[in-house]
Structure prediction request, 133 residues.
Amino acid sequence: MKRILLAAALATFAASAAGAVDARDHDRHERKAERDYWKERGKAEKRARKDYEKAEKAYWKAVREDRKAHRRWARGQHIPVEYRQSRYYINDYRAYGLAAPPAGYTYVRPHPQDDTYYMIELATGLVARILGN
Prediction:
C-alpha cells in the first residue's frame, strides 16, 4: 500500500511539475510574442513617421518652388536668365496697349496668367519699368 501511495504521490508530483514547466513555457512564449509585437509596431511607427516627414518635406519643397516660379521683381532688380528668352518677349506690344520700348530694351511677361509686364534691359535683365498689375 505504501508503495502504491508513494507511486501515486510521485506521479502526481511529476505531473504537476510538468504542468508547471508547461505553464512557464507558455508564459515565456507569450512574453516573447508580446515583445516581438511591440518591436515590430515600433519599427512600423518609425517607418510611417519617416514616410510622413519625407512627404512633408516634398510638399514644402514644391510650395517653395511654386512661390519661386511666381516671383515678382521690383524696379532695379535683375530678372533671371531663364526669363530673358524670346518666348517671354512681347513683340506685339501695341496689342497689349504698351508703348514702344527704347532701343536695347524689351517687354517681358514671365507668367502668362499674370498681366504684369516688365520692361527690361536686354543685355543685363535689369528691370527698368513695371506695367500692369
The first helix runs from residue 2 to 69.
